């Protein structure tokens, strides 16, 4: 299994779970929309053996959800028609097709680890479920019926969950320990002044204790004392003295779950996954509904016809009969039953995508025992996605790719969807799923419809495990180009264009007024906050609905943003990530994150920033020496090190340099710290300096047999060789490297001089002059040294920027080994290179299951927005499939935040019919708002300030467009400019400055002028006509 391909997924479930996936056999029955979504996800996640059982042929109704089928496949077996395209998703997986009789299917089920039914809810399933239970086979069934879906999970009588929530175990440093010898207990204080997070432990939790001075490593059961303290029993504590330092880590315990059979769960449904707390009664209602639809289908050989009142009434009659016998609910929700019955005859992409992600995740849980499975039902509906005005009887006279969608949503809403002009920002994991959803749902296939996708990134190997539009041969090509081409092949009626531009202030001439104004809807598929905030601001400016979503491992969320109704994405912000203090990183680390930050700093200093400084000098020595750096001692010493003292001539020199770096970083630098602050040193208050979260370090001795030491020497030598373009011999052995290291001459360590501060001791003028003269002589000597080595053939050195994604470049090797060696100095637990790479590269864990699922939720909201639903009918979603947990809630209403007068959606349009002066603009804004203006800015450029602005008079006398042009830049291909105005309510003594809504100032192409020109043109034409007459 390719570790690069599955890197993001492995960070969610771990290596052991990935190995289980690579050895598993899964049977999927049915390859409609839900089936193909499930199989696609299983292939991408790395299931080794997948067999598809399919006995149905393709019809037009499949094309609204089964993305690998086309009109040319009508009449062909669905699995056989899709096989080639599915096989291309993952060449490591063994995919096969089976079909036959029911008895053959029943026998086949016993040969797999997991069996998934995706197309039916019939009486045969209870029999097959019993067969699976008796054979130890995990069983999952799911159905997708219009805007209704259902999942059932049965993992047998006993199922061990090794990790119930997917969260990292709680860990922390031990700040202090106290012993109560009378009770044989040790109390641990975890309150770190630099990190005030509570330990999060409860009575009975098990933890491991490591690296405590005076205490052997142990696993103990704790008792919670308070949010920052816990205690544990230790009968040997009477013999302990002077305990200090160390770390604690929570030990996760497996849990045992017991599942009931399908037959028993039909009669006595176990509490299922509630998805909306405003619909508390829906689980029972939907369970009864699924039984009623299943009976209707058995009796009529088909599902209820689309928007057919008679069929909907028949379903209600069946439901009443069943409920009278089993009392699933106190009272049937007839409106709910009617709406779902009328719209369940078609399968839609949105529901199949949502359920397919969840089903594939349940398969992964069954195989890996990671995360808590659904126990045992999940029923879900989205009736608000249906048109608010119920269509009359719907029939398909001319079958098309959208036939199934029309059966669910009616022609009017489906036509609206097809004619949407959608801007998709991002073509990564979320973007690929959205584009597939658009293609299959018919978005952009109408006469006025269009999809535009932009993404500046190129395809990488690690993308292939969750960005299913890409193949191995696409690595290195633009994401948006390949994704758009893939969607066009799925639905050749789709009008789609791709761009490779980043959307931001620097591209506002590309994404200009005309572009934004032409859009119906914006969908974000981004992975960073700044880009999201910018898109959010543009949607506010141009009053465009925005569908936002994101994922993190097993977690996902979505947000619906509707102009003039809801808050925006930027209305609420997560707190910024806390930065580590520099002194902690460089002198007092206590967790591995500190040593990784230190190692990144060392990498940058040795191989990038220092090299860039040398190249700047080599490019133009005279200009460098005339500048600030030419008289800076530190800068000149850097040049001398790289160009003279440490410059290698061959790879042997690189190895010796690395040995010296080991000495300076892990021995001499540590000695400097302990010399300045000995172990018994105290603070001004008399407390021990090395206490609490400070760890006393120990210098490292070079050990040729230590793996981390070898990796550091080898990787740093190779990186230095890369900097100087030195060839690395192919036959360099470990023994050879160590022999060179053993014979390397090391600089003699010189301890730092600790100067005692003497009161009122200031150097006299002569001493100052001598010091200045000495410093200048040193500068002159350094300048002469470095300029003396310049020749016309001196090549530029190669600057190396840290790259986490290429395992062959030795960047992560250096970082991991340097971090771990530094951690060893401070007795901090070490981690492997894989974990270091994740922390250093800020890699976001991701899985195809979560990604696919959340885009299904978003697509259901898209129908609501397009159909004109108000915010009360829309839902934001938060999902954690590991728990599992689903919650949907109404979007927050936009509030009047600006002076209590304006919401984020409001703006002040200034179109005076001509380009006015800044002074006139100030007067106009004041007249409209009643507020005093403090400043006007355009982007980051200040245009006007009420006090202390030297160009105030010139600004006020200039026209707005001239002044913006002079101080900033006018947007190209736009007749408006967006200004930020800071104001204050001077009538309120407690008022602070605040931002007014954006000022949209029109500086050309005025409507009055257009009308005047049109009138003049009309008069000229009439005059010409009279002359001809």
Automatic annotation (TrEMBL):
Enzyme Commission no: 6.2.1.45
Reaction catalysed by this enzyme: ATP + ubiquitin + [E1 ubiquitin-activating enzyme]-L-cysteine = AMP + diphosphate + S-ubiquitinyl-[E1 ubiquitin-activating enzyme]-L-cysteine
Protein name, per record: E1 ubiquitin-activating enzyme
Record bears the keyword Ion transport: no
Pfam family, one: E1_UFD
Region span, Disordered: 758-777
Species per Swiss-Prot/TrEMBL record: Acrasis kona
Gene3D superfamilies membership: NAD(P)-binding Rossmann-like Domain, Ubiquitin-activating enzyme E1, FCCH domain, Ubiquitin-activating enzyme E1, inactive adenylation domain, subdomain 1, Ubiquitin-activating enzyme E1, inactive adenylation domain, subdomain 2, Ubiquitin-activating enzyme E1, SCCH domain, Ubiquitin-activating enzyme E1, UFD domain
GO biological-process terms attached to the record: protein sumoylation
